[in-house]
Amino acid sequence: MIFNMKQQTKKSDKNSVSISAKKTGKMFARTLPNILAVVFLSGLFIEFVPIEHLSDFFGGGLLADGLIGATIGSVSTGNPLISYALGGELLDHGMSLVAVTALIVSWVTVGFIQFPAEIQAFGPRFAIIRNCLSFLFALVIAFLTIITIQFMGIG
To answer: What was the pLDDT predicted at 116?
Structure first.
């Protein structure tokens, strides 16, 4: 009797795994066009907006630099591994630390380009709240970075 119950459990587990795999495959196939569009749009943005021209937008004070940096980072998308090199390059081109920090944090967390795919995968309410909070926290982190560096006497 116990042996028979184990066999039935294994069959139902295999059946539920199969159903889950099919649902996952359908969801992936449904979102694949949006994922590809995100990748292509990101490549186009990076190609047509060189780093040298980004520093032209800054220099209006801490708050303005933070807002501009977070906005530019929000409409682009990036890889966290590249952010260290990008941050160094932006600082070398004369951008302020608050602008670079806001840009990098929002670049990695907000991602306006992938917003349609995020809405499709998670729903509009979640996507809007997550992106707004990520934008806000990018600014908070940028200013906390400046405060921390000043407190430590580094900058």
So the answer is: 87
Under DSSP, is residue 59 helix (H, G, I), strand (E, B) or coil? coil
Does the pTM exceed 0.90? no
Amino acid letter, residue 140? V
On the question of pLDDT at 133 being above 90, the answer is: yes
For the chain, the farthest-separated pair of C-alpha atoms sits apart, in whole angstroms, at: 78
Residue pair 105/76 in contact (Cβ under 8 Å)? The answer is: no
Out of 46-50, 73-77, 143-147, 150-154, pick the least confident. Answer: 46-50
Contacts 24+ apart (CB under 8 A), 55-59: 55/90, 55/93, 55/94, 55/95, 58/94, 58/95, 58/96, 58/99, 59/96
What band does 7 get if pLDDT is binned at 50, 70 and 90?
A: low
Q: 26: closest CA among 115, 99, 121?
A: 121
- Sequence-distant (6+) residues with CB within 8 A of 48 are none
